[in-house]
Structure formats: structure tokens, C-alpha cells
Amino acid sequence: MSTNAPCPTDAQHSALGHTAKPEVADATPAAPAAREVPKTPEVPMAPGGRPALVGRRVFRTPMVRRVVYAVIFEAFAILFATLILTLMGNPPTASAAVGVVSSVVALIWNMVFNTLFERWERRSGHTGRPLWVRLMHTVLFEAGLLVFLIPAVALLLQVGLWEAFLYEAVLLVFFLIYNAVYAWCFDRVFGLPDSAQ
What we know:
The protein has about 200 residues and is mainly α. The chain contains five helices and no strands.
């Protein structure tokens, strides 16, 4: 048998009872399918699955939302802390100083804490922010804040650490309630963050 014989055509293969050679697929890999990015709703959802009261998306990024959230929170916090400490018999000037320092520390902590919390929320898959998640958020935030504020209050009010702790305990009880109410109201007005949608 000669090795120079021409290769049979597909028609000759069929006539001889052979099956046709399969066509060779193009060796170039197919382009990867476009990854679908979930579309963010125009009106974010608020607690309870209702649309946000503003009726539209206000914040372009999670960072902008966190900044607005924290600034409004702390503006009211300065007012409330000054009023509470003054009513407890402290000089108004020292009370205002505690209010301002507490708010600056809390503003920084708020940004750090909410960034970490939303990262946990996204990774854990919890959505809608049920009551137990809101309570955990509030308790962890306030506990971290105490660590930073007790020495500052002691210094500004010229009291011992124990007395500073007692002042902070009173403020803590108030701010536990305030934090939970404020967070719910903010979410109701502007909608939940994307991590909780």
C-alpha cells in the first residue's frame, strides 16, 4: 500500500461505510459571558420591605451614605450630651467640650465601625437588618465607644475614671436608645444600605 495515496473524501468515506471525520472546532476560546451586575433599585427599600420615604436613591456610594449618616448623628449627639451633662450638675462649658470631643471620637469610630459592620453584613448574607442585627449593631458600637471615651471624660470634667464611667453609663443608656431610633429613622427615610438590600 502506497503512503502517497490521496486521502479519501467525505463522500468516499460514506460510500465505504466509514463515518465522516468530525469537524475540528475553532481553537480560539469563546469569549467569557458578560458578568451580569445586579442592578440597584431606583428606590431603595426601607425597614419592613417598604420603599424609602424620599422615593429615590439619594447617595451615590456607600461612603457618602456613611458620612451623611455620621454627621447628622453627631450633630444631634453634641446637643444631647451637652444638655444631659449640664442637667447632671456639670458646668455648661465643660459639658459642651465633652459633647464635642465625644462626637469627634464617635464620628471617627462610627465611620470605622460601620465600614466593618457592613463588610460583615455583606459576607454573612444577612439582609433586611432584622431587630437582632440592629441590637447587635448598637451594642457593639456603644461598647467600642466606651473604651475611647471614659479617659477623655475623666480628663475634661476633672473627675476620676469611676465617676467618668458613671457619666458615660448614663449617656450610654440614652445613646443606646438614640442610636437604635436614629438608625431606624435614617433607614426609613433614605432606605437601607446596599449591603442590607
